[in-house]
UniProtKB/TrEMBL annotation, chains A, B:
Gene name in the database record: pgi
A GO CC term attached to the entry: cytosol
Protein name, as recorded: Glucose-6-phosphate isomerase
EC number(s) reported in the record: 5.3.1.9
Principal location listed in the UniProt entry: cytoplasm
Length: 527, 527
């Protein structure tokens, strides 16, 4: 029997409150004990990756209390309820099925009379067939010439995740020969976004993907119109250059305006949709369906680990619990995501949406105000770049920001140079190792300006190489982390009511239905 | 006589502490009073822009107290000391002269026997001559063909600022016909960064700018080697494809490895260097020296306003003071920068460095620990994209995040579509107006899930259009804001000792000089 309780009503919460100053990281990470922690505080992920939390402010006592929290808050049972098809998104009365796009973790899920795993696989297969035909030139432009570029039109979850995934694999695909088509993205309602992308592509050889679950997203429909104008101006038939990704109930689903339509449904939130048709269409076109399938397999393997009840065998759950400890017990307000991989340049922006839109809430799943803080601010940039930028504050600022590093043993492109007896990849890795220790242990120094307090916690995920599999695993790890944190905080992590009010007011402005300050702002902006 | 005092020792600080719950924004912005605030709480910037702070949690009482703070902390005098050439960067015993690259605000500044304004202008003129020759084909590749692409090799301040400025003006320049050359940027020591950029450019027609003040930045020299290899592999003479931007004392200054070298000096910090040769070379090559000159003029006009003692006539100072009130009195830890302009996509990343590296410090300018919080976490993405992402937390999360909006009346490219009776630019502007009001006033609703608490403060900077002038003014505004906040917090905003420890430890890893936890991390990463 699952019980949904507020975090501050739990016995384990009270226990954790007594463990606030349990670990002085600076001491814990010094000497032989530090090496022991690095060896022991490491959890296997899938695909040869590890989650290492040696430099977090935890010890066995805290970990035991977090395990109690996991048990008391029934994380395993709640995850099972989710993947077995219960209505976990209570606000919108919806199932939450994004894991089902990459594998089946429990019993068959039937909704609206359809086996949903079969539905998602069917869409993947349809996309795969379509992509193969495009790559073979069987689906081509009106002159019978192959499409060379794919342009995704979408915003929010239809943009950030797929874009981050594309960038993550673009160079890898070029080197491995799986690269098929360039991808571009149009998202912002700022007319300069669409105009700029369209000016930079060869529209006659471009295929456009319109992504909108409802088929009514204003930004996306506006940008579609931009694209149609560009195609028309080039003397082309827009309906021969566009496909749709939408729900099968949307007005776009059966429109003759598109070459074809691929489906998602209401059980996959935008920010969780990279492994659905939303990511599937663009990634299959860009890299081929086999690469997309490998990406899904990577995610599926990581999802399977999230079922483990032992937190030492469940990296997402452990990561989630440590995050809660940092947020609610240690009182940290932000978390920085710092991948040491240029290919992950937009991965932090995707996680920013994933996390902040899921858990940036003040009411529990019953719509009651909670008395504790919830989701943190998430930000980040790739290292080593960030080291020459905002790391100053991370090291010596007045607030402590927990850090989430990601690193890979091998680069993607295998082109490297040796300078001062080391390769760039070695330098990259040496920097992340050095940063972890600098943050944890700091440096004593009489000159306070050069003094580093230390005690700044971080974890690191290490993989062999950024590939479709490890990327899928990384994505699933963070999706599951956010889900577990939502369970602990007793939130509905799958709706987003906070985005509605702005939409309503924007419509008022556009229809001239304004007064007072809103009218004054409209005037200021010369709308 | 200037006195450098800690913030918490000031009378005005104590006064401000008594004004913590002075303004209920939700009430203040409702009805006619809200419209009045929008009209009155607006300060002229240069170049036709305004800084509007109607939706900040301030009123005339708070503003009076902030004016007292400005006076007590001698902001005007300290700025004058800075631009007149005093040693404001006390830690490194350096002058702080970035404003002097765009105009002279006070008396002649002579350092190292050189009139520094003349020195900066001389470099600008040398760059302008060089760029004109490149554009005219007088400086060309070995076959006498014109260079078409410029690639900046730099990291931190040599990357983020120039890159953000380039992206901000790229489309504008294309539309106005001032576009001269594509620009690309190599920054990360991750070998995939250089390999990817080099794979995407035509090296035979590329000119590379090596940017390193000291001439010793490891990432940058490593990436230079990457570039030299690529040029060599293409059968080209690297010295005919590279220029250097460095200090005149650096080993690069007179090297025959470069076509030419342009100079900056120790009085311009990396994060303040976009208006120096660091931004000057790449922006003059990309857009022509006239555009760069206009950018400098925009900044100069904004700098001039920063001299005003009246905070109602000094937008940077007012913005700074309100930020301090939010940080130290209201207790907010982060600030989001939200430009409603896709062209400003990397402007938040630049401000993140500018602000967090300048004021993310725990010691005052005398090296004594301070007892108050200093620089906030800065993050942001362009709107409307962010609305479909992390705005959920901004609206309904458990912490309040002050917001800094930027908007323009006109788009850059003047290509637009009308959908539902409005252009995209109108929709873009309607959204930012709507968001400000949604954040300020919220929405009452019995269903707590759809309830918006409001009372979430924001300001907006509005300009006619994003042009070289307004971009320069925006940049100067934020540079000066950060400077004034540093003065209030009694920090040295111009050094960055917090980046040193990581460098030292990374060298140890690379030389194998590790033990204990650092050795264990090196092993984990297979270095």
């Amino acid at each position: 029997m699952i019980e949904w309780k507020n975090f501050d009503k739990l016995n384990s919460f009270k226990k954790l409150q007594g463990l606030k100053n349990q670990v002085e990281l600076k001491t814990a990470m010094a000497g032989a004990n530090g090496a022991k922690r690095v060896a022991e505080y490491s959890v296997h992920m899938s695909n040869g990756m590890v989650y290492n939390f040696a430099s977090k402010q935890v010890d066995d006592t805290v970990l035991d209390a977090l395990a109690e929290l996991a048990e008391e808050t029934q994380l395993t049972e709640k995850f099972a309820a989710l993947f077995n098809g219960e209505v976990i998104n209570t606000g919108e009365k919806r199932l939450v099925l994004h894991q089902l796009t990459r594998g089946q973790l429990g019993s068959d899920v039937v909704a609206d009379g359809v086996n949903k795993r079969e539905f998602y696989v069917e869409q993947q297969n349809r996309i795969a067939e379509f992509a193969k035909k495009v790559h073979a030139g069987e689906i081509a432009n009106e002159k019978g010439e192959k499409f060379t570029t794919v342009v995704q039109i979408g915003i929010g979850g239809s943009d950030l995740g797929p874009r981050a995934m594309y960038l993550a694999l673009e160079n890898w695909a070029k080197v491995t020969g799986t690269f098929k088509m360039e991808a571009r993205f149009i998202s912002n309602v700022d007319p300069d976004d669409a105009a700029s992308v369209l000016a930079g592509v060869d529209v006659a050889h471009s295929i456009f993907i319109l992504v909108s679950k409802s088929g009514t997203t204003l930004e996306t429909l506006t940008n579609e119109s931009f694209v149609k104008d560009a195609l028309k101006n080039a003397g082309l038939d827009a309906s021969k250059h566009m496909i749709a990704v939408t729900s099968d109930a949307s007005p776009l689903a059966k429109s003759s305006d598109y070459l074809d339509a691929f489906f998602m449904d209401d059980y996959i939130g935008g920010r969780y949709s990279s492994t659905s048709s939303v990511g599937g269409a663009v990634l299959s076109l860009a890299f081929g369906p086999d690469v997309f399938a490998r990406f899904l397999n990577g995610a599926a393997a990581e999802d399977a680990l999230a079922k483990n009840t032992d937190i030492r065998k469940n990296p997402a759950m452990l990561d989630a619990l440590i995050g809660v400890y940092e947020r609610n017990i240690l009182g940290y307000e932000s978390t920085a995501v710092l991948p040491y991989s240029q290919a992950l340049s937009r991965f932090p922006a995707h996680l920013q949406q994933l996390d902040m839109e899921s858990n940036g809430k003040s009411v529990n799943r019953f719509g009651e105000a909670v008395d504790y803080v919830t989701g943190p601010v998430i930000f980040g940039e790739p290292g080593t770049n960030g080291q020459h930028s905002f790391y100053q504050l991370l090291h010596q600022g007045t607030n402590i920001i927990p850090l989430q590093f990601v690193g890979f043993k091998k680069s993607q492109m295998a082109t490297d140079v040796v300078i001062e007896d080391s390769t760039s990849q070695q330098k990259l890795k040496a920097n992340v190792a050095a940063q972890i220790m600098a943050f944890a242990c700091g440096k004593d120094e009489d000159n306070r300006n050069k003094y580093f307090e230390g005690n700044r916690p971080s974890s690191i995920i290490v993989g062999e190489q950024l590939t479709p599999e490890t990327l899928g695993a990384l994505l699933a790890h963070f999706e599951n982390k956010v889900m577990f944190q939502g369970f602990v905080w007793n939130l509905n992590s799958f709706d987003q009511e906070g985005v509605q009010l702005g939409k309503v007011l924007a419509k008022k402005v556009l229809s001239g239905d304004t007064s007072d300050a809103l009218a004054a702002y409209a005037k200021l902006l010369d709308i």
